[in-house]
Structure formats: structure tokens, C-alpha cells
């Protein structure tokens, strides 16, 4: 047998061993017999114990008294009578003979021959005992739709209780729903009126359940990211079954459904927002997105949907700027190097350190994401852009004194210029060698930058600066312009003509254009 409803197993009529329509005399007689047996510790048994069909009944004097007291309350008497057997017709006698012999299927077959008040109720009880809820409810629908108006009189002709067929039906549904669940009743109900009432009894508790869980989540500390994230998960889990049931009962256009759906979804959304705003977790955006997507799937109201959509859009933009999950460690290492670099002076030596320190991480990222990965190219370009900034700054700074001196000497009287240069008051070689040294280091850094992959739009500007630098290096004799190989320190040339050639060459130089990327992803 299935899970027999408690209202059958613990029914006062069953405890007393009588039918639901038995007379008060029969009830008193059974109670008297039971009391006498219990005094001498003899077990109390009745045919309606239905051995082999129902579990045995353990009876005490207290149970008998409690059962009898239940039946003194008119409404309680009828409520329990709805869930116990009736004996009203000769057909019932035949069926009970089979039932007492534990042949429940044959008893059902007998009661199915004719639809009477007792046969429908007895058949309904047999189906409940067997766990066949759909057939039980079908019999109950027929019972109350056909015999509901005269039901109480048939049970107890002396009763002063007055209930309509609809009220009796509702009492039956409420009592059975407590045992088997109103959702289960709704699934098998076939009568439209019955379904309407069962739905009304189902929807209220579901909405109340969801609303209660939302209120719990609201009370969680909004500044505690972990608590709010956990609150979102608990809220979704605790309301999943109730919300799914509600969704199956009401259309999305129903005001009740919209109200509770938006209330639930917006609280889950707020949990996600609070978590993200206060969390230091590396994966906070991804965790928050899961919560916000869930909220987005729940809400149905226009304003609620707009709020969810806007938050998801904002968070998605943040996620788009984050590194792919598989290169998080490389990203963190490069980010640390860029942060350190941004605080240092604009020197080529720091550019070289940045390039050398980030290169292994970029190579690892390239291996994992591929050379065409937009994220890899963006980060690699950012590193080179920052390094190039220092190169340009130091080169332009180094050549500035010679350029200014060249302008000064160009407009000077030849005699005075010759005297100034030959007199040794200006050490042109020292200034020139400083420029050459800077250019030499700049070119070494450039050769290192050449090994990095770049975004196409930046590569064009990078090549322009590279060409300019190479021209400067050639004019200053830093390397053979054909081979690009850097020379060591050249011999100092102190003659007036040599100095003048150097100055005039520098005057014709074009300063490198500054293009830098100083932001840190």
C-alpha cells in the first residue's frame, strides 16, 4: 500500500472500531468492550482494523477517550466521517466481506457496480489506501457533486450542523491537502470548480513561503559580501520549488505572479550587487553575474526587467575587460609590473626591466590564448607602449642640449664661434657621447620591443618612432645603418669642423613622437 493519509490511520472512528455512520449506541458498546479488555491487558481488535490492509492499531483508554471527544464536536465529526468507511446498502455488506479478507481490489470492484454515497466514499478510501490519488479524487468529485447536499443527514440524522455541498467539498480538500499536499491534488483534479478551489489554496501558501524567504534575505548584512552571496544562493534554493509550482499555476500576466516574481528577483539582484560592490574576490564579477542572470530570469515586470538588464549590461562590460580565466595568473603578474613601472622615473633602464619581467608571462598568455587573441595583443601592446614612452622621453631629453647649442652657434659670428669651439670652453664630445649613449640604450630597448606582438593600429606608430630612432642612431654613428649593429665608443673628435658637423647634423634631426599607454588593465 502507498503512504496512507494520517487522517485515515488516526481516524477516531477507526480507533473506536465503528463505521462513520454508526450510532452512538454502537460507539458506546465498542468503548465499553475495549475498556474491559484493556483492564485485563487483552488486545482490542475490530473487523474494521482491516488486517492485511492497514497497519495494526495500538489502543489505550486515553486514545478511546480522545477519539470520543473528537466526535462530540459536530464539524470535527463530519470531517473525520469524510475519511472513514460507511455502511448503508446491501452492496456495502458484500464489499466489506472482501475487505475484511484483505481483498481490497475485489471490494473496489463491488463498490464500482453502483454509484451511491457510501460506495463512492468507500471506494475513494480504498484508492487512498492503495496510493491511487487520481482515482480517489475522481470518486470524491462524484461523491460531493452528486450527494453533497444531503451528506450530513446521511451520516448523522440528529446532527444540527448545516454545510453546503461546496463547503463539504472544501473541508474535504483542506483536510486531504494537509496530508498529501495541495499541489498533488491539483495535478490529478479533473473538475474545473475543484481545480479552482485547490489552486486558491495552493497559491496563497506558495506566495507566503516565497515572501518569507525574501524577508530573511533582506535582513542579511548588506556590507558583508560573503553573507550576501550566500543569501542569494539560499534564497534561490529555498524558493525554487515554491516558485516553480507558482509558475505552473499562474500566467506571467497575473498580478499576483508579477508581484512575487519581481520581489524575489530584485532581492536576488540586490544580493549580487552588494556582493560585487564589497568583495575583493578575483572572480567576483563572474560570481555576481551568475546571481544577476538568475534574477534576470525571474522578474517579469517592465521596471524590474529594466533594472536587471541594466545591471547585467554594466557587469558584462566589466567582465569583457577582465582577462580570460585561464590566464589570470599571468594577468596579475603583468599588472603588478605595470603598477610598479608607473611609479618610476621615465628612464630607459626601467623600460628594459619592464620588458624582461613581463615577456615570460606574455609568452605564456600567447601560448594559452593564441597570437591572434585580442586580449593578449592588447596587453602586449600596453607593455610596449609604456616601455616606448620612457625611451622617447629620455632620447628627446638627451638631444635637447645639443639642439639648442646648435641653434646658438648657427647664428654666431664665425670668428667668435671658432674661438669658442677651439678654445675648449665647450666640451662638445662629452655632450655628444651622452646623446650617443642614450641612443645606444634606446636602440637596445627597441630591439627587445621588436620581439613583442602588437595591435595593428599601434604597430604603425611604433614603426614610425623606430624609424626615427634608427635615423638618429645612424647620424650619430651609433651603428652601421645598413646592419643596424651598434658600435662601441668612437674616438673623440675635438676639431672645430668635427664639432660643427655634429651640431649641424643634430639641428636637422626630428624629435621622436611620444606615444604611450600608461593605463593599467
Protein traits:
521 residues, mainly alpha, 3 domains, 24 helices, 70% helix, 0% strand, rod-shaped, disordered C terminus
Offer a concise description of the structure.
It is rod-shaped and about 150 Å long. The model is unreliable at 487-510 and 514-521 (pLDDT under 50). The chain has helices at residues 6-9, 12-16, 24-39, 61-70, 74-81, 90-100, 104-111, 117-130, 133-147, 151-155, 165-180, 182-188, 192-218, 225-249, 255-278, 284-298, 302-320, 328-342, 348-369, 374-410, 414-422, 428-449, 456-475, 496-507.
The helix fraction, in percent, is over 70%
Q: Give the count of structural domains.
A: 3
Tally of extended strands? 0
Structural class based on helices, strands and sheet pairing: mainly alpha
Number of helices: 24
Query: Outline, from the CA principal axes?
Result: rod-shaped
| Mean of residue pLDDT values | 87
Q: How large is the radius of gyration?
A: 46 Å
| Distance between the first and last residues' Cα | 67 Å
In percent terms, what proportion of residues is strand?
under 5%
* Major beta sheet summary: none
The H/E string reads: HHHHHHHHHHHHHHHHHHHHHHHH
Describe the SSE topology:
Elements (H helix, E strand, L loop, with lengths): L5 H4 L2 H5 L7 H16 L21 H10 L3 H8 L8 H11 L3 H8 L5 H14 L2 H15 L3 H5 L9 H16 L1 H7 L3 H27 L6 H25 L5 H24 L5 H15 L3 H19 L7 H15 L5 H22 L4 H37 L3 H9 L5 H22 L6 H20 L20 H12 L14
Amino acid at each position: 500500500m502507498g503512504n496512507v493519509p494520517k487522517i485515515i490511520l488516526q481516524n477516531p472512528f477507526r480507533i473506536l472500531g465503528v463505521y462513520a455512520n454508526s450510532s452512538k449506541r454502537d460507539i458506546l458498546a465498542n468503548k465499553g468492550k475495549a475498556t474491559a479488555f484493556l483492564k485485563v491487558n487483552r488486545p482490542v481488535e475490530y473487523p474494521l482494523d482491516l488486517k492485511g490492509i492497514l497497519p495494526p492499531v495500538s489502543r489505550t483508554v486515553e486514545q478511546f477517550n480522545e477519539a470520543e471527544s473528537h466526535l462530540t464536536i459536530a464539524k470535527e465529526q463530519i470531517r473525520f466521517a469524510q475519511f472513514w468507511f460507511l455502511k448503508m446498502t446491501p452492496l456495502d455488506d458484500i464489499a466489506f466481506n472482501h475487505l475484511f479478507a484483505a481483498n481490497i481490489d475485489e471490494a473496489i470492484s463491488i463498490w464500482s457496480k453502483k454509484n451511491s454515497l457510501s460506495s463512492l466514499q468507500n471506494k475513494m478510501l480504498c484508492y487512498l489506501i492503495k496510493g491511487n490519488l487520481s482515482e480517489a479524487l475522481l470518486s470524491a468529485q462524484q461523491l460531493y457533486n452528486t450527494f453533497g447536499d444531503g451528506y450530513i443527514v446521511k451520516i448523522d440524522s440528529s446532527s444540527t450542523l448545516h454545510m453546503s455541498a461546496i463547503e463539504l467539498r472544501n473541508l474535504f480538500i483542506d483536510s486531504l491537502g494537509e496530508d498529501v499536499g495541495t499541489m498533488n491534488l491539483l495535478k490529478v483534479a479533473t473538475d474545473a470548480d475543484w481545480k479552482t478551489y485547490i489552486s486558491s489554496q495552493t497559491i496563497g501558501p506558495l506566495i507566503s513561503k516565497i515572501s518569507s524567504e525574501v524577508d530573511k534575505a533582506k535582513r542579511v548584512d548588506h556590507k558583508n559580501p560573503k553573507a550576501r552571496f550566500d543569501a542569494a544562493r539560499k534564497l534561490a534554493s529555498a524558493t525554487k520549488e515554491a516558485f516553480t509550482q507558482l509558475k505552473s499555476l499562474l500566467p506571467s500576466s497575473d498580478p499576483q505572479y508579477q508581484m512575487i516574481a519581481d520581489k524575489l528577483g530584485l532581492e536576488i539582484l540586490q544580493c549580487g550587487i552588494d556582493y560585487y560592490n564589497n568583495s575583493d574576490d578575483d572572480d567576483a564579477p563572474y560570481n555576481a553575474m551568475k546571481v544577476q542572470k538568475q534574477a534576470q530570469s525571474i522578474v517579469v515586470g517592465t521596471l524590474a526587467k529594466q533594472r536587471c538588464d541594466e545591471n547585467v549590461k554594466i557587469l558584462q562590460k566589466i567582465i569583457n575587460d577582465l582577462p580570460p580565466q585561464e590566464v589570470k595568473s599571468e594577468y596579475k603578474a603583468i599588472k603588478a609590473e605595470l603598477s610598479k613601472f608607473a611609479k618610476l622615473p621615465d628612464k630607459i633602464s626601467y623600460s628594459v626591466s619592464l620588458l624582461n619581467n613581463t615577456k615570460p608571462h606574455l609568452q605564456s598568455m600567447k601560448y594559452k590564448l593564441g597570437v591572434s587573441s585580442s586580449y593578449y595583443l592588447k596587453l602586449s601592446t600596453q607593455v610596449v607602449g609604456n616601455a616606448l614612452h620612457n625611451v622617447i622621453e629620455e632620447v628627446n631629453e638627451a638631444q635637447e642640449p645639443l639642439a639648442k647649442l646648435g641653434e646658438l652657434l648657427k647664428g654666431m659670428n664665425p670668428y667668435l664661434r671658432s674661438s669658442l669651439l677651439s678654445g675648449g670652453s665647450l666640451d662638445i664630445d662629452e655632450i655628444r657621447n651622452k646623446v650617443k649613449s642614450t641612443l645606444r640604450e634606446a636602440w637596445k630597448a627597441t630591439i627587445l620591443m621588436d620581439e613583442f606582438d602588437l595591435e595593428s593600429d599601434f604597430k604603425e606608430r611604433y614603426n614610425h618612432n623606430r624609424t626615427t630612432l634608427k635615423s638618429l642612431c645612424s647620424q650619430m654613428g651609433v651603428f652601421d645603418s645598413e646592419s643596424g649593429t651598434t658600435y662601441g665608443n668612437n674616438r673623440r673628435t675635438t676639431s672645430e669642423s668635427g664639432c660643427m658637423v655634429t651640431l649641424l647634423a643634430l639641428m636637422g634631426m626630428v624629435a621622436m613622437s611620444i606615444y604611450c599607454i600608461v593605463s593599467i588593465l
